[in-house]
Amino acid sequence: MISQGKHFDEINSDDIKELVEECVFENRYLEYKRTLPGKLEEGKRHLKFSNPQKEEFLADVSSFANSYGGYLIFGVGQNKNQLSLNPIRCSDTDAIIRQLEQVIMRGLDPRVNGIQIREILMDSSSSEYVLIMKIPESWQSPHIVWFGESGKFWRRVSGGKDQMDVKGIREAFLLTERRTTQIAKFREERVRMIMSGNAPVFLEPKPTLILHLTPLNAFDTRSGIDLKLAETHIQKLSLPEVSSFPLKLRYNLEGVLVSYLGFEMDDHGSEFYVQIFRDGCMEICYCGFLTEAEKPLYPRYWEKWIRQRVTMTLEFLQVLSVDVPISLMLSIIHVLGRKFHVSGHEHHPLNEMYGQYRINHDMLLLPDFLIESYDDDLDDVLIPLFDIMWQSAGWRTSPDRLSKK
Protein backbone atom coordinates (compact mmCIF):
# COMPACT_ATOMS: atom_id res chain seq x y z
CA MET A 1 0.00 0.00 0.00
CA ILE A 2 1.10 3.59 -0.66
CA SER A 3 1.06 4.53 3.01
CA GLN A 4 3.64 1.81 3.75
CA GLY A 5 6.32 3.55 1.71
CA LYS A 6 6.07 1.62 -1.54
CA HIS A 7 8.37 2.89 -4.26
CA PHE A 8 6.55 5.36 -6.47
CA ASP A 9 7.28 3.49 -9.70
CA GLU A 10 5.90 0.27 -8.22
CA ILE A 11 2.46 1.64 -7.26
CA ASN A 12 -0.16 -0.16 -9.36
CA SER A 13 -3.92 -0.53 -9.78
CA ASP A 14 -4.15 -2.97 -6.88
CA ASP A 15 -2.71 -0.32 -4.55
CA ILE A 16 -5.31 2.22 -5.70
CA LYS A 17 -8.14 -0.28 -5.29
CA GLU A 18 -6.85 -1.16 -1.83
CA LEU A 19 -6.99 2.49 -0.78
CA VAL A 20 -10.66 2.57 -1.77
CA GLU A 21 -11.59 -0.83 -0.30
CA GLU A 22 -9.78 -0.16 2.99
CA CYS A 23 -11.30 3.33 3.20
CA VAL A 24 -7.97 5.12 3.59
CA PHE A 25 -9.34 8.64 3.88
CA GLU A 26 -7.66 11.94 3.10
CA ASN A 27 -5.10 13.17 5.60
CA ARG A 28 -2.04 15.40 5.83
CA TYR A 29 -0.21 13.25 3.30
CA LEU A 30 -3.00 12.20 0.95
CA GLU A 31 -5.71 13.95 -1.06
CA TYR A 32 -8.13 12.63 -3.66
CA LYS A 33 -9.65 14.38 -6.66
CA ARG A 34 -12.59 12.86 -8.46
CA THR A 35 -11.63 14.56 -11.74
CA LEU A 36 -8.65 16.24 -13.35
CA PRO A 37 -8.04 19.92 -12.50
CA GLY A 38 -9.70 21.18 -15.66
CA LYS A 39 -12.02 20.08 -18.43
CA LEU A 40 -10.85 17.39 -20.81
CA GLU A 41 -12.88 17.98 -23.95
CA GLU A 42 -13.85 15.07 -26.17
CA GLY A 43 -11.14 14.29 -28.70
CA LYS A 44 -8.73 16.82 -27.14
CA ARG A 45 -5.35 16.06 -25.61
CA HIS A 46 -5.15 19.05 -23.32
CA LEU A 47 -7.03 20.29 -20.29
CA LYS A 48 -8.95 23.53 -20.45
CA PHE A 49 -8.46 25.33 -17.13
CA SER A 50 -10.61 28.04 -15.63
CA ASN A 51 -8.71 30.45 -13.39
CA PRO A 52 -10.27 29.05 -10.17
CA GLN A 53 -9.39 25.48 -11.24
CA LYS A 54 -5.78 26.38 -11.92
CA GLU A 55 -5.46 28.30 -8.65
CA GLU A 56 -6.99 25.39 -6.70
CA PHE A 57 -4.59 22.91 -8.31
CA LEU A 58 -1.55 25.05 -7.50
CA ALA A 59 -2.77 25.54 -3.93
CA ASP A 60 -3.03 21.76 -3.50
CA VAL A 61 0.48 21.15 -4.83
CA SER A 62 2.11 23.96 -2.83
CA SER A 63 0.37 22.90 0.39
CA PHE A 64 2.14 19.52 0.25
CA ALA A 65 5.49 21.08 -0.69
CA ASN A 66 5.20 23.59 2.16
CA SER A 67 4.42 20.84 4.68
CA TYR A 68 5.53 17.22 4.76
CA GLY A 69 4.99 16.18 1.16
CA GLY A 70 2.39 13.65 0.06
CA TYR A 71 0.24 12.24 -2.72
CA LEU A 72 -2.41 13.84 -4.90
CA ILE A 73 -4.54 11.21 -6.68
CA PHE A 74 -6.89 12.04 -9.57
CA GLY A 75 -9.62 9.52 -10.28
CA VAL A 76 -10.67 8.73 -6.72
CA GLY A 77 -13.46 10.55 -4.93
CA GLN A 78 -14.21 10.99 -1.24
CA ASN A 79 -17.72 11.83 -0.05
CA LYS A 80 -18.06 11.97 3.73
CA ASN A 81 -17.20 8.43 4.86
CA GLN A 82 -17.12 6.81 1.46
CA LEU A 83 -14.46 6.45 -1.22
CA SER A 84 -15.22 5.74 -4.85
CA LEU A 85 -13.10 4.83 -7.83
CA ASN A 86 -13.70 7.24 -10.73
CA PRO A 87 -11.13 6.38 -13.42
CA ILE A 88 -10.33 9.00 -16.04
CA ARG A 89 -10.76 8.19 -19.71
CA CYS A 90 -7.91 9.69 -21.69
CA SER A 91 -6.18 8.76 -24.94
CA ASP A 92 -2.93 10.64 -24.23
CA THR A 93 -1.98 10.74 -20.57
CA ASP A 94 1.58 11.85 -21.41
CA ALA A 95 0.24 15.11 -22.85
CA ILE A 96 -1.87 15.70 -19.73
CA ILE A 97 1.10 15.04 -17.45
CA ARG A 98 3.30 17.46 -19.41
CA GLN A 99 0.59 20.12 -19.17
CA LEU A 100 0.27 19.69 -15.41
CA GLU A 101 4.06 19.93 -15.04
CA GLN A 102 4.08 23.19 -17.01
CA VAL A 103 1.30 24.68 -14.89
CA ILE A 104 3.28 23.86 -11.72
CA MET A 105 6.51 25.22 -13.16
CA ARG A 106 4.92 28.54 -14.11
CA GLY A 107 2.58 28.98 -11.16
CA LEU A 108 4.77 28.41 -8.07
CA ASP A 109 7.61 30.54 -6.77
CA PRO A 110 10.21 29.29 -6.13
CA ARG A 111 9.96 26.24 -8.35
CA VAL A 112 9.23 22.93 -6.59
CA ASN A 113 11.76 20.26 -7.54
CA GLY A 114 11.30 16.51 -7.44
CA ILE A 115 7.57 16.27 -8.24
CA GLN A 116 6.68 12.96 -9.91
CA ILE A 117 3.51 12.26 -11.91
CA ARG A 118 2.47 9.01 -13.55
CA GLU A 119 -0.62 7.29 -14.84
CA ILE A 120 -1.90 3.96 -13.54
CA LEU A 121 -3.98 1.89 -15.93
CA MET A 122 -7.13 0.66 -14.18
CA ASP A 123 -8.95 -0.93 -17.14
CA SER A 124 -7.05 -1.78 -20.31
CA SER A 125 -10.20 -2.47 -22.30
CA SER A 126 -11.55 1.07 -21.90
CA SER A 127 -8.30 3.08 -21.40
CA GLU A 128 -9.29 4.17 -17.89
CA TYR A 129 -6.58 5.66 -15.71
CA VAL A 130 -5.84 7.13 -12.33
CA LEU A 131 -3.21 9.87 -12.20
CA ILE A 132 -1.00 9.92 -9.12
CA MET A 133 1.31 12.76 -8.15
CA LYS A 134 4.02 12.56 -5.50
CA ILE A 135 5.02 15.95 -4.09
CA PRO A 136 8.12 15.97 -1.87
CA GLU A 137 8.56 18.13 1.16
CA SER A 138 10.45 21.10 -0.26
CA TRP A 139 13.82 22.36 0.91
CA GLN A 140 12.97 25.82 -0.51
CA SER A 141 9.68 26.37 1.26
CA PRO A 142 7.54 28.31 1.58
CA HIS A 143 6.30 28.38 -2.03
CA ILE A 144 3.84 31.04 -3.05
CA VAL A 145 0.97 30.69 -5.52
CA TRP A 146 0.88 33.76 -7.72
CA PHE A 147 -2.39 34.50 -9.44
CA GLY A 148 -2.84 37.88 -11.00
CA GLU A 149 -1.27 40.39 -8.65
CA SER A 150 -1.99 38.45 -5.47
CA GLY A 151 0.00 35.68 -3.86
CA LYS A 152 -0.93 33.11 -1.23
CA PHE A 153 0.96 30.54 0.84
CA TRP A 154 -0.71 27.21 1.63
CA ARG A 155 0.05 24.33 4.00
CA ARG A 156 -1.44 20.93 4.82
CA VAL A 157 -3.59 20.36 7.89
CA SER A 158 -5.50 17.25 8.97
CA GLY A 159 -8.61 18.40 7.13
CA GLY A 160 -6.95 19.38 3.87
CA LYS A 161 -5.14 22.62 3.12
CA ASP A 162 -5.10 25.95 4.90
CA GLN A 163 -3.78 29.39 3.99
CA MET A 164 -0.70 30.29 5.98
CA ASP A 165 -0.69 33.35 8.23
CA VAL A 166 2.30 35.63 8.83
CA LYS A 167 3.54 33.48 11.72
CA GLY A 168 3.36 30.30 9.63
CA ILE A 169 5.23 31.93 6.75
CA ARG A 170 7.98 33.11 9.09
CA GLU A 171 8.32 29.66 10.65
CA ALA A 172 8.61 28.05 7.20
CA PHE A 173 11.50 30.35 6.25
CA LEU A 174 13.25 29.64 9.57
CA LEU A 175 12.84 25.87 9.11
CA THR A 176 14.55 25.99 5.72
CA GLU A 177 17.46 27.94 7.19
CA ARG A 178 17.71 25.58 10.17
CA ARG A 179 17.99 22.50 7.94
CA THR A 180 20.92 23.98 6.06
CA THR A 181 22.66 24.71 9.35
CA GLN A 182 21.98 21.19 10.68
CA ILE A 183 23.50 19.54 7.62
CA ALA A 184 26.65 21.68 7.78
CA LYS A 185 27.01 20.96 11.50
CA PHE A 186 26.51 17.21 11.00
CA ARG A 187 29.22 17.09 8.34
CA GLU A 188 31.76 19.09 10.34
CA GLU A 189 31.20 17.05 13.51
CA ARG A 190 31.62 13.77 11.64
CA VAL A 191 34.80 14.91 9.87
CA ARG A 192 36.36 16.17 13.10
CA MET A 193 35.48 12.89 14.80
CA ILE A 194 37.16 10.89 12.01
CA MET A 195 40.18 13.16 12.04
CA SER A 196 40.62 12.75 15.80
CA GLY A 197 40.78 8.96 15.43
CA ASN A 198 37.19 8.16 16.41
CA ALA A 199 35.92 6.77 13.10
CA PRO A 200 33.73 3.63 13.19
CA VAL A 201 36.85 1.66 12.21
CA PHE A 202 40.51 2.40 12.76
CA LEU A 203 42.00 4.55 9.98
CA GLU A 204 45.64 5.45 9.62
CA PRO A 205 46.29 9.22 9.75
CA LYS A 206 47.01 9.63 6.05
CA PRO A 207 45.23 11.47 3.19
CA THR A 208 41.58 10.45 3.40
CA LEU A 209 38.51 11.18 1.29
CA ILE A 210 35.16 11.51 3.07
CA LEU A 211 31.90 11.73 1.14
CA HIS A 212 28.64 12.66 2.81
CA LEU A 213 25.33 12.32 0.99
CA THR A 214 22.67 13.84 3.22
CA PRO A 215 18.96 14.07 2.36
CA LEU A 216 17.65 17.49 3.26
CA ASN A 217 14.86 15.94 5.32
CA ALA A 218 17.25 13.63 7.18
CA PHE A 219 16.94 15.41 10.51
CA ASP A 220 13.17 15.37 10.47
CA THR A 221 11.94 13.04 13.20
CA ARG A 222 9.56 11.43 10.68
CA SER A 223 12.33 10.35 8.33
CA GLY A 224 14.08 7.02 8.46
CA ILE A 225 15.04 4.07 6.29
CA ASP A 226 14.39 0.36 6.51
CA LEU A 227 17.74 -1.06 7.63
CA LYS A 228 16.67 -4.59 6.73
CA LEU A 229 15.92 -3.43 3.18
CA ALA A 230 19.29 -1.65 3.11
CA GLU A 231 20.99 -4.90 4.08
CA THR A 232 19.37 -6.81 1.20
CA HIS A 233 20.65 -4.25 -1.33
CA ILE A 234 24.11 -3.78 0.19
CA GLN A 235 25.89 -5.22 -2.87
CA LYS A 236 24.91 -2.07 -4.78
CA LEU A 237 27.67 -0.35 -2.81
CA SER A 238 30.37 -2.72 -4.12
CA LEU A 239 32.80 -1.27 -6.65
CA PRO A 240 34.12 -3.55 -9.43
CA GLU A 241 37.71 -3.44 -8.19
CA VAL A 242 36.73 -4.74 -4.75
CA SER A 243 33.84 -7.01 -5.71
CA SER A 244 36.01 -10.09 -5.07
CA PHE A 245 36.36 -9.12 -1.41
CA PRO A 246 33.59 -10.21 0.96
CA LEU A 247 31.59 -7.49 2.62
CA LYS A 248 31.73 -7.13 6.37
CA LEU A 249 28.45 -5.79 7.72
CA ARG A 250 27.39 -5.05 11.26
CA TYR A 251 24.73 -2.98 12.96
CA ASN A 252 25.74 -0.12 15.23
CA LEU A 253 24.10 2.76 17.07
CA GLU A 254 24.10 4.94 13.95
CA GLY A 255 22.67 2.28 11.63
CA VAL A 256 24.67 -0.18 9.52
CA LEU A 257 28.44 -0.21 9.01
CA VAL A 258 29.90 -1.78 5.87
CA SER A 259 33.56 -2.50 5.14
CA TYR A 260 35.55 -4.88 2.93
CA LEU A 261 37.54 -7.69 4.51
CA GLY A 262 40.20 -7.31 1.84
CA PHE A 263 40.91 -3.76 2.99
CA GLU A 264 41.40 -4.60 6.65
CA MET A 265 44.76 -3.92 8.25
CA ASP A 266 44.00 -5.71 11.55
CA ASP A 267 41.01 -6.98 13.48
CA HIS A 268 39.55 -3.51 13.84
CA GLY A 269 41.09 -1.46 11.07
CA SER A 270 40.17 -0.79 7.46
CA GLU A 271 41.09 1.57 4.65
CA PHE A 272 37.47 1.86 3.55
CA TYR A 273 34.01 1.89 5.08
CA VAL A 274 30.45 3.00 4.45
CA GLN A 275 28.28 4.14 7.34
CA ILE A 276 24.56 3.99 6.59
CA PHE A 277 22.67 6.16 9.04
CA ARG A 278 19.15 5.40 10.20
CA ASP A 279 17.90 8.73 8.82
CA GLY A 280 19.19 8.04 5.29
CA CYS A 281 22.52 9.88 5.53
CA MET A 282 25.53 8.14 3.98
CA GLU A 283 29.19 8.46 4.95
CA ILE A 284 31.83 6.94 2.66
CA CYS A 285 35.44 7.06 3.82
CA TYR A 286 38.57 5.89 1.99
CA CYS A 287 42.27 6.25 2.79
CA GLY A 288 43.66 3.52 0.55
CA PHE A 289 45.21 5.62 -2.22
CA LEU A 290 48.88 4.67 -2.31
CA THR A 291 51.11 7.61 -1.44
CA GLU A 292 54.32 8.05 0.53
CA ALA A 293 54.59 10.62 3.26
CA GLU A 294 55.39 14.11 1.99
CA LYS A 295 54.99 12.97 -1.63
CA PRO A 296 52.55 14.67 -4.05
CA LEU A 297 48.98 13.42 -4.30
CA TYR A 298 47.22 12.49 -7.54
CA PRO A 299 43.57 13.58 -7.40
CA ARG A 300 42.88 12.44 -10.95
CA TYR A 301 42.42 8.98 -9.44
CA TRP A 302 40.17 10.49 -6.81
CA GLU A 303 37.86 11.92 -9.46
CA LYS A 304 37.12 8.47 -10.88
CA TRP A 305 36.57 7.01 -7.41
CA ILE A 306 34.26 9.84 -6.35
CA ARG A 307 32.20 9.59 -9.53
CA GLN A 308 31.74 5.83 -9.09
CA ARG A 309 30.92 6.15 -5.41
CA VAL A 310 28.35 8.93 -5.84
CA THR A 311 26.63 7.09 -8.70
CA MET A 312 26.34 3.85 -6.75
CA THR A 313 25.24 5.52 -3.54
CA LEU A 314 22.47 7.43 -5.30
CA GLU A 315 21.23 4.18 -6.87
CA PHE A 316 21.24 2.63 -3.41
CA LEU A 317 19.31 5.52 -1.84
CA GLN A 318 16.76 5.49 -4.65
CA VAL A 319 16.04 1.80 -4.01
CA LEU A 320 15.43 2.72 -0.36
CA SER A 321 12.95 5.43 -1.50
CA VAL A 322 15.00 8.20 0.10
CA ASP A 323 13.62 11.53 -1.03
CA VAL A 324 15.65 14.07 -2.96
CA PRO A 325 17.10 16.65 -2.77
CA ILE A 326 20.34 15.30 -1.36
CA SER A 327 23.32 17.36 -0.28
CA LEU A 328 26.67 16.07 -1.57
CA MET A 329 29.73 17.07 0.46
CA LEU A 330 33.38 16.13 -0.03
CA SER A 331 35.96 16.50 2.73
CA ILE A 332 39.68 15.71 2.53
CA ILE A 333 41.81 15.33 5.66
CA HIS A 334 45.48 14.87 6.57
CA VAL A 335 46.73 16.82 3.57
CA LEU A 336 48.62 19.71 5.21
CA GLY A 337 51.71 20.61 3.19
CA ARG A 338 50.92 18.23 0.33
CA LYS A 339 50.97 19.09 -3.38
CA PHE A 340 48.61 17.98 -6.12
CA HIS A 341 50.25 16.54 -9.24
CA VAL A 342 48.70 15.40 -12.47
CA SER A 343 51.09 12.44 -12.79
CA GLY A 344 54.16 10.90 -11.20
CA HIS A 345 56.47 12.86 -13.49
CA GLU A 346 57.51 15.90 -11.49
CA HIS A 347 58.58 17.76 -14.64
CA HIS A 348 55.25 17.34 -16.38
CA PRO A 349 54.42 20.84 -17.78
CA LEU A 350 51.25 21.13 -15.71
CA ASN A 351 53.06 20.06 -12.54
CA GLU A 352 55.71 22.70 -13.11
CA MET A 353 53.06 25.35 -13.72
CA TYR A 354 50.58 24.56 -10.94
CA GLY A 355 51.92 21.70 -8.84
CA GLN A 356 54.41 23.66 -6.74
CA TYR A 357 51.89 24.98 -4.23
CA ARG A 358 51.38 23.26 -0.90
CA ILE A 359 48.02 22.90 0.80
CA ASN A 360 47.87 25.09 3.90
CA HIS A 361 45.03 23.23 5.65
CA ASP A 362 44.97 19.78 7.15
CA MET A 363 41.19 19.56 6.70
CA LEU A 364 39.46 20.64 3.50
CA LEU A 365 35.68 21.06 3.77
CA LEU A 366 34.61 21.65 0.19
CA PRO A 367 31.32 23.48 -0.47
CA ASP A 368 28.21 21.33 -0.62
CA PHE A 369 26.35 20.69 -3.88
CA LEU A 370 22.70 19.83 -4.21
CA ILE A 371 21.36 16.84 -6.16
CA GLU A 372 17.76 17.79 -6.84
CA SER A 373 16.69 14.69 -8.76
CA TYR A 374 17.91 11.14 -9.28
CA ASP A 375 17.82 11.95 -12.98
CA ASP A 376 20.21 14.91 -12.67
CA ASP A 377 23.33 14.94 -14.81
CA LEU A 378 26.07 14.35 -12.22
CA ASP A 379 28.54 16.38 -14.26
CA ASP A 380 26.60 19.49 -13.26
CA VAL A 381 27.62 18.76 -9.67
CA LEU A 382 30.92 16.90 -9.96
CA ILE A 383 32.76 19.14 -12.43
CA PRO A 384 32.58 22.25 -10.22
CA LEU A 385 33.33 20.06 -7.17
CA PHE A 386 36.49 18.70 -8.81
CA ASP A 387 37.56 22.19 -9.85
CA ILE A 388 37.34 23.42 -6.25
CA MET A 389 39.24 20.35 -5.06
CA TRP A 390 42.17 21.17 -7.37
CA GLN A 391 41.97 24.89 -6.61
CA SER A 392 42.54 24.12 -2.92
CA ALA A 393 46.11 23.18 -3.91
CA GLY A 394 46.74 26.16 -6.19
CA TRP A 395 45.55 24.76 -9.50
CA ARG A 396 43.48 26.90 -11.82
CA THR A 397 40.98 24.10 -12.39
CA SER A 398 40.94 20.33 -12.86
CA PRO A 399 43.71 19.25 -15.30
CA ASP A 400 41.10 17.66 -17.54
CA ARG A 401 39.58 21.10 -18.09
CA LEU A 402 43.01 22.73 -18.45
CA SER A 403 43.96 20.35 -21.26
CA LYS A 404 40.83 21.38 -23.18
CA LYS A 405 41.50 25.12 -22.99
Question: Strands, helices and their partners?
Answer:
Blueprint: H1 13-21, E1 30-33, E2 39-40, E3 47-48, H2 51-65, E4 70-74, E5 76-79, E6 82-85, E7 88-89, H3 93-107, E8 108-109, E9 116-123, E10 128-135, E11 144-147, E12 150-157, E13 160-163, H4 166-195, E14 208-215, H5 227-232, E15 247-251, E16 255-260, E17 272-277, E18 282-286, H6 299-319, E19 326-333, H7 349-354, E20 363-365, E21 369-371, H8 379-391, H9 399-402
β-strand number: 21
Biggest sheet: strands, sense, closure?
A: 8 strands, antiparallel
Poorly predicted sequence stretches spanning 5 or more consecutive residues? none
Straight-line distance between termini: 54 Å
What helical percentage do the residues reach? 25-40%
Overall 3D form? elongated
Entry keywords:
Methyltransferase, Cobalt-precorrin-4 Transmethylase, Domain 2, 405 residues, alpha+beta, elongated, 2 domains
Task: Give a structural overview.
This protein is α+β, with helices and mostly antiparallel strands. It has two domains: 2-164, 2-Layer Sandwich (Methyltransferase, Cobalt-precorrin-4 Transmethylase, Domain 2), CATH 3.30.950.30; 179-402, no CATH class. Helix content is 29%, strand content 25%. It has helices at 13-21, 51-65, 93-107, 166-195, 227-232, 299-319, 349-354, 379-391, 399-402; strands spanning 30-33, 39-40, 47-48, 70-74, 76-79, 82-85, 88-89, 108-109, 116-123, 128-135, 144-147, 150-157, 160-163, 208-215, 247-251, 255-260, 272-277, 282-286, 326-333, 363-365, 369-371. Strands 14, 15, 16, 17, 18, 19, 20 and 21 form an eight-stranded antiparallel beta sheet that branches. Strands 1, 4, 7, 9 and 10 form a five-stranded mixed beta sheet that branches. Strands 8-11-12-13 form a four-stranded antiparallel beta sheet. The mean pLDDT is 87.
